[in-house]
Amino acid sequence: MSEIKYPDGAIPCLDKGFIRLVDSMGSDGAIVQAARVSYGRGTTKVTRDKGLIRYLLRHRHSTPFEMVELKFHAKMPIFVARQWVRHRTANINEYSLRYSEARDDFYIPKKEDIHFQSKFNKQGRDADEVPDALKEKVIQYFTEMSENSFDIYQNLNEAGIARELARAILPVNLYTEWYWKNDLHNTFHFLKLRMDTHAQYEIRVFAEGMAKFVKQIAPIAYEAFEDYVLNGMYLSSIEKSVLTKKIPHHITKEIYDDIVYRIVASMNATKPRTENELYVLYQETGGCDSKEDFEIKWNAGNIETGNVFELREFKAKFKDIFI
Ligand SMILES: Cc1cc2nc3c(=O)[nH]c(=O)nc-3n(C[C@H](O)[C@H](O)[C@H](O)COP(=O)(O)OP(=O)(O)OC[C@H]3O[C@@H](n4cnc5c(N)ncnc54)[C@H](O)[C@@H]3O)c2cc1C
Fold first, then answer.
1. Strand partners, 183
2. How confident is the model at residue 290 (pLDDT cuts 50, 70, 90)?
3. Is residue 281 within a helix (H) or strand (E), and if so which, with residue range?
4. When comparing pLDDT for 236 and 174, which is higher?
5. What order do you get walking across the sheet with 11-13 strand by strand?
6. 42: which DSSP letter?
């Protein structure tokens, strides 16, 4: 097997793969700039950029996120590339095995990543421990099959057989590499699907690497993505109706109070403002208390929650369950 060489700035993935950010266009600022075209000059205050990005993401107003472009260079096994390539909105340019000879880079799973087939999920792995002897056998089969196929491939090449045909003898644990360019909105979609625990481990590690770069490029948007999409949860109408019927009122009241507290607290943390700015926001969202009264309430954690926009949305969304 050839020596592993990682390009500058690459995050190693699996045994020989990597992902790195090659280039990017725009950042959080580009999202806000684009949104202002549709929302007008009223939102131009810098301190509101974070709130605006979070609002856009929460409401699936996605086109401003398409103003940010990210170009990655990744090296992954062919079976991972087959899943990755299903994301149709990306622009891809892949290493050609018609043009160049394959390198003997094959994915051999680590012992800790070898699991039994899941009994419950046809597309997953079981948590039960595989006996060490069987793990070693798996690694041995992967290694033998990779080396044998590569020997045959080289023989065919030396005999002058066309590379585009000879490559068909190589297995899907062979590494390929490509440049992958996408906008931030569709990159988030990729990350949502491929960072999920239902995604195969071997693609998840690349998605997790990609996420680190996205976070560097557009930290506010990434934080909003984590809050509202990646770690968020959708309820079906069946789930909602069960919650409504089965959870007693005093419990939903407790949950509601906790969520209200958290949203208010997160609003304060994610939109750091001076006391003066907070009061202006309070007035803009319909608050009528004097500045002094407002400050007393805010400091006591007793702010009228109906004046916090995100809370109003929350109340409307869950009115059947919590009210
Ligand atoms: C856990 C998991 C298991 C999977 N299992 C299988 C499987 O067993 N078999 C299988 O074949 N695939 C499988 N897939 C792949 C899956 O079906 C999708 O093809 C893949 O996740 C890409 O999703 P997408 O189409 O939303 O993304 P993208 O292609 O990136 O598209 C992004 C969005 O753009 C829109 N879009 C793009 N192209 C079109 C179009 N032509 N028409 C309309 N809208 C479009 C859609 O809104 C789409 O959601 C699996 C994926 C995951 C995450």
1. 69
2. confident
3. helix 275-284
4. 174
5. 11-13, 17-25, 69-77, 175-183, 91-94
6. G
Mean pLDDT confidence for 293-305: 60
Residue 179 CA, distance from chain mean position? 19
CA of 213 to the centre of ligand 1 (A): 23
Report whether residue 186 contacts ligand 1, using a CB cutoff of 6 Å.
Answer: yes
C-alpha 185 – ligand 1 centre gap (Å): 14
Instruction: Note the pLDDT of residue 177.
Output: 96
Q: Is the pTM of this model over 0.90?
A: no
How does DSSP classify residue 117?
B
Burial 38-59 (b: 16+ CB within 10 A, else e): ebeeeeeeeebbbbbbbbbbbe
Measure 196 CA to ligand 1 centroid, in angstroms.
14
Q: Give 177's strand partners.
A: 75
Cβ–ligand 1 distance for 189 under 6 Å, the answer yes
Ligand 1 touching residue 87 (CB < 6 A): yes
Q: Which helix (H) or strand (E) holds 262?
A: helix 249-270
Kindly report the number of other CB atoms within 10 A of residue 95's CB atom.
Answer: 15
For 25, list phi and psi in degrees, rounded to 5: -130, 125
Structural domains for the chain: 11-114+174-230 (3.30.1360.170), 237-322 (no CATH)
Q: Is the C-alpha dihedral spanning 52, 55, 61, 62 positive or negative?
A: positive
Tell me the C-alpha distance between 184 and 60, whole Å. 13
CA 287 to chain centre: 36
